[in-house]
């Protein structure tokens, strides 16, 4: 379901660059000296107040958070799909949205008041449906494309960028509000909101392949754009004027630089070990951001290495942006997606978000029991 998002967030496809082999090198001293809080125990904690879902083979996956204590999970039965709301504390489950065909993606806006649901119908057409917290339809988009990606505006909760992919991976981009749809001309299908009226994107030069590209800022109301940064590998933004660029001095470096910007001014920096893919893809760790406490959670490899042979696990790191401090919370064998709860108390973890990590005590609970 989140395949497109994995491509956009976890791996940024570059125009063409092959890196030289990386030698294994352990973390800089500033990382090694950080105190270790806890590791995930070999068995899951018992006595947790979080209640796993009952074993149900029709459950496809957990799609994300609904509110602080509830998740949405997906069931497929025959030719219909149903999203259920499930309370992690009371184990109460109730239908949220049922559709004919298949639900292939669900994206909540910043305050979880609206959800963008992508549906493939029985006629193999793709629709994008915007529903509210009651599961009632607010907008339906049909015949715009064969697949959609949604980028919610965190500064204006009923507005989003809709990228509609056409045959042969051409795409069209629209700015959508609850009253109108306006086409927006962009050179890249991956965009990030910088402010209520501006988005940022990397402008790749097709005729001059490079692992970096200039970062542009675009006004979505009048399409005016300006160059913001010259050479950037990846760009991410968060719902509180904070954003992040990934840069590197050369392809031979062992660490890339993650620079945080507050209101587009440099604020903090951290170093990230590079896992070399030896391809046109640059490895980016899975991450999630708690806007309330301004904590950047991510999975960090223990050292720079070859992506395909690296097998030494990934540390779950909480980086506190305001204080420039970090904390190791756990170590996982695999590199898997993360998503923080609306209040910042829990993390969903796993390819199917099948586990939840309690940030208050380090307990991890498997939600989908085998």
Automatic annotation (TrEMBL):
<protein>
    <recommendedName>
        <fullName>YqgU-like 6-bladed beta-propeller domain-containing protein</fullName>
    </recommendedName>
</protein>
<dbReference type="InterPro" id="IPR048421">
    <property type="entry name" value="YqgU_beta-prop"/>
</dbReference>
<feature type="domain" description="YqgU-like 6-bladed beta-propeller">
    <location>
        <begin position="87"/>
        <end position="350"/>
    </location>
</feature>
<dbReference type="Pfam" id="PF21101">
    <property type="entry name" value="YqgU"/>
</dbReference>
<feature type="signal peptide">
    <location>
        <begin position="1"/>
        <end position="20"/>
    </location>
</feature>
<keyword id="KW-0732">Signal</keyword>
């Amino acid at each position: 379901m989140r395949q497109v998002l994995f491509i956009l967030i976890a791996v940024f496809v570059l125009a063409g660059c092959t890196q030289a082999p990386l030698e294994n090198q352990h973390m800089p001293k500033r990382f090694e000296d950080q105190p270790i809080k806890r590791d995930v125990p070999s068995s899951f904690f018992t006595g947790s107040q979080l209640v796993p879902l009952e074993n149900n083979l029709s459950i496809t996956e957990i799609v994300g958070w609904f509110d602080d204590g509830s998740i949405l999970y997906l069931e497929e039965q025959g030719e219909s799909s149903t999203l259920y709301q499930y309370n992690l504390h009371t184990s109460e489950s109730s239908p949220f949205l049922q559709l004919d065909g298949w639900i292939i993606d669900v994206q909540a806006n910043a305050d979880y008041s609206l959800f963008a649901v992508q549906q493939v119908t029985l006629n193999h057409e793709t629709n994008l449906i915007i529903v509210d917290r009651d599961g009632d339809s607010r907008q339906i988009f049909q015949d715009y494309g064969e697949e959609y990606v949604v980028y919610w505006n965190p500064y204006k909760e009923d507005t989003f960028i809709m990228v509609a992919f056409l045959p042969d991976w051409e795409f069209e981009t629209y700015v959508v509000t609850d009253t109108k749809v306006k086409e927006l001309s962009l050179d890249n299908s991956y965009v990030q909101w910088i402010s209520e009226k501006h988005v940022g994107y990397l402008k790749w030069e097709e005729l001059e392949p490079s692992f970096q590209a200039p970062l542009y800022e675009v006004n979505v109301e009048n399409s005016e754009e300006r160059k913001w940064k010259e050479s950037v590998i990846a760009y991410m933004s968060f719902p509180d004027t904070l954003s992040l660029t990934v840069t590197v001095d050369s392809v031979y470096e062992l660490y890339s630089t993650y620079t945080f910007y507050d209101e587009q001014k440099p604020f903090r920096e951290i170093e990230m070990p590079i896992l070399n893919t030896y391809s046109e893809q640059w490895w980016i760790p899975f991450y999630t951001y708690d806007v309330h406490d301004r904590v950047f959670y991510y999975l960090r490899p223990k050292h720079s290495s070859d992506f395909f042979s690296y097998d030494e696990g990934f540390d779950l790191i909480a980086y506190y942006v305001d204080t420039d401090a970090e904390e190791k919370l756990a170590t996982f064998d695999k590199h898997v997606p993360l998503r923080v709860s609306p209040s910042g108390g829990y993390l969903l973890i796993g390819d199917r978000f099948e586990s939840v990590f309690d940030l208050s005590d380090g307990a991890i609970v498997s939600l989908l029991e085998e």
